[in-house]
Each structure stands twice: as structure tokens, then as C-alpha cells.
Amino acid sequence: MEYLNKLVSSINAPVSISNLQLNNRVVMAPMTQESSVKHIPGKVQVEHYGQRAKHGVGLIITEGTVIPHASANGHFNVPLMYSESALSGWRKVVNEVHRFDSKIFAQLWHVGGVREAAMPPEVGVPAVTPSGLSAPNIPNGKKLTIKEIDEVIAAYANAAKNAQLCGFDGIEIHAAHGYLIDQFLWQATNLRSDQYGGGAKNRYRFAAEVVTAIRDAVGPDFTIGFRWSQWKIQNFSARVFQSPEELAPFLQTVSEAGVDVFHTSTRRFWEPGFEGSERTLAGWTKAITQKPCIAVGGVGLGNDFLLGGPSSASQHVYESLIRGLEENEFDLIAVGRALLADPAWFSKLNQRSTQNNNHVLA
Ligand SMILES: Cc1cc2nc3c(=O)[nH]c(=O)nc-3n(C[C@H](O)[C@H](O)[C@H](O)COP(=O)(O)O)c2cc1C
């Protein structure tokens, strides 16, 4: 299992993104837990994130956090990125993660049309969306006016400032998976004909304005991440961008607005981004923007730590990961479910490689 040694050396290489030094290439993917009672992070969240930091994860991205806008939330017990009690809870989470020399970004989330009006904390407030749709042809909530769009953008900036004041090392804008920002990007949920809809350039104006407003609020030295995806919770096979040529102007625009690191959300990171090339979607993101990029999807899902070690299916995934990192196709790998199932996933992977070496030497 020579590849395990290679893997461990590739993923343990330190890396810097903007002005942050990360101890290794492993990122905890953002994962909603619905466990912040009444939307306030507490001891459970300190323990949850602290455990992953203790076991060596270089960068933690929090679950989606609610920005200070009445229609932003779509779930019970999802933590806020506003209010004194929520921010006080986040300060404790940040301190705990820093105690283990790991870094942490807050993911900023507005669910747009996915909200149901009965959802707390602002019970009764309807969803807001680009065109009054939660999914293609499925009406929900109200269409945003230009003034209301400005208010939502300001809420993103306020959330980012709150995260900065809590001591977070950066923020990640959740522009993926069919939530508000992605509803503007997606032709099927953006039927507007003003400056925020119609042609491709108009559809990514909202995303770019969110980045610009956040950059203005946090200054030049605070790290801004941007997560995007082709797939949507409303449709796993949706494709907003049909080719690298279509993707490039979007990514270049948000990059120039002030993004430091991209996070390309795919369900299997090793799959080609577009027909005609083996390059992954994370690889295209990095090639287009020349900025650091996080890949994600499908790492650590085999029974890697059972007797006998990783299966041949895991070997294929890990060999793709080594290749992606060594060939600079992407810089970091986010791990979701494997780290949710086992906070010690990363330290066990490192141990497995050491055991493997000892076995060979014996
Ligand atoms: C329980 C759960 C909650 C998730 N919540 C979020 C979220 O809040 N924000 C987000 O961008 N992605 C979310 N995701 C997607 C993950 O970040 C990740 O992209 C996905 O799980 C694929 O990675 P994996 O194969 O390593 O699990 C969630 C995934 C899971 C399993």
C-alpha cells in the first residue's frame, strides 16, 4: 500500500491561502447539524468543531450560518451569524479550534426560495427569491425588488463583519446547491429581465455584488472563500455552465470582486468537469481563476480503518487525490461525511500509514 504513504505526505504538506498558513490540505466540509438549540451555538458545537481540530484537520468550514436577514433561514436549530448570544457562542468555538492550531471559516447562508414561512426565528416571514420560485416551475415566496436585493447584500456584509469580529480566520460564501445566490445563477430559477437576470452576465451580478460588499466590510486582509456547484438540491444533474468557456467569465468576475479561495462542490471530486477533458471541476476553477481551490466529494467513504485497510475502491479515490494535489489541479481537499462519522478520521489515516510502514519493516 505504497500509495498510502504518498497520500499522507501529499495531504500533510502545509499550504498558504491568501495570508493564512494551513498545517495541511485537509478541510472539514461545511455540514448543517441542526443542533444549535434556538439557533445559538453552544457546548455541543464547541465540542463538535474542537474534536476535528484536535485530530489535525487544517481548516474547518462551519455549517451554513444564517445571515442577518429575516428570510435567510430554512431549517430548525441552524446557528445564526448575528445576535449577541450567537456571536458569543461562536467566539468559544473559534477559541477552541485555535487552541489546536487549526483555522476556521464561517459559512454564510441565505436559503432563498427553499425557506418555508413557518421557519423560526422569524416565523411568518416569506421566502425571497429572484423570481418567486423555489425550484424550476415551483412557486414559493416573493420576488425580490431592487431595494430588497440591496438589503440582502448588506446582510451578507454584516454577517461577514460579525464573523471577523468573532475571530474567524475567514468566511465562505455559500453560493452553491440551489440556495439564494445559486437561484440567481441558474436560468431555471432566475426569470428576471432587469440587471439581475436575462443574460449570463446579469445572472452573476448578484454573486459579484455580495463578494464586493463583503470585501468592503472586512478589508483587504480577511480571507473570503466562495463555494459554488453545478448540482442543486432541486436537481442533482443541473448544469448552469455547459463548457469551460461559459464558466470562465462567471468565475473571473467573482474572483476579481475579491475572492481568495474557491471551493468547487461536487459529489465525486475526481470526475471530469466537462466532456472532452479529464480535468476536474475544481481543476477548471483553479485554471480559470489562478486562485487556490478546494475540491470535495466522496473521500473516506470506504471502510478504510477496518482490518486489511482501504479497499480497491478507496485506492482509486486516494490515487486521484494524490494526482490532483501533486499536479496542482487543486490545493485542498474537503471531507464531509467521513469526518462527521469519525472526528479522528484524519489522525487515523496518518496512523494507518505509520502502521503500514512498521508492518513492512518488521
Ligand atoms: C449532513 C450534511 C450537511 C451538509 N450541510 C451543508 C452546508 O451547510 N453547506 C454546504 O455548503 N454543504 C453542505 N453539505 C455538503 C458537504 O459540504 C459536502 O459537499 C458533501 O457532503 C460531499 O462531501 P463528502 O462526500 O466528503 O461527504 C452537507 C452534507 C451533509 C452530509
Describe the structure.
It is a single chain. The chain is globular and about 65 Å long. Helix 4 (146-166) packs parallel to helix 7, helix 7 (205-218) runs parallel beside helix 8 (244-258) and helix 8 crosses helix 9 (281-289). A hairpin with a 2-residue loop joins strand 1 and strand 2. Strands 3-4-5-10-11-12-13-14 form an eight-stranded parallel beta barrel, surrounded by five helices. A two-stranded antiparallel ribbon has the order 1-2. The chain has helices spanning 2-11, 43-54, 84-99, 146-166, 180-185, 200-203, 205-218, 244-258, 281-289, 312-326, 337-341, 345-361; strands spanning 15-17, 20-22, 26-28, 59-66, 103-109, 128-129, 133-135, 138-139, 142-143, 170-174, 223-229, 261-265, 293-296, 332-335. The chain is an alpha/beta fold. Bound molecules: flavin mononucleotide.
List keywords for this structure.
globular, eight-stranded parallel barrel, binds flavin mononucleotide, 362 residues
Derived from helix and strand composition plus strand pairing, the structural class reads: alpha/beta
Low-confidence spans: pLDDT under 50, at least 5 residues? none
Strand content: 15-25%
* Total strands: 14
The biggest beta sheet reads:
8 strands, parallel, barrel
Q: Radius of gyration, rounded?
A: 20 Å
Give the integer mean of the pLDDT values: 95
H/E topology pattern: HEEEHEHEEEEEHEHHHEHEHEHEHH
Shape: globular
Regarding quaternary structure, what we see is: single chain
Helix share of residues? 25-40%
- Tally the helices: what do you get? 12
* Ligand types: flavin mononucleotide
In the sheet with the most strands, the strands line up as 3-4-5-10-11-12-13-14
End-to-end Cα distance: 15 Å
Domain NADH:flavin oxidoreductase/NADH oxidase N-terminal: 13-353
Pfam families: Oxidored_FMN
Organism: Pseudoalteromonas piscicida
Protein name: NADH:flavin oxidoreductase/NADH oxidase N-terminal domain-containing protein
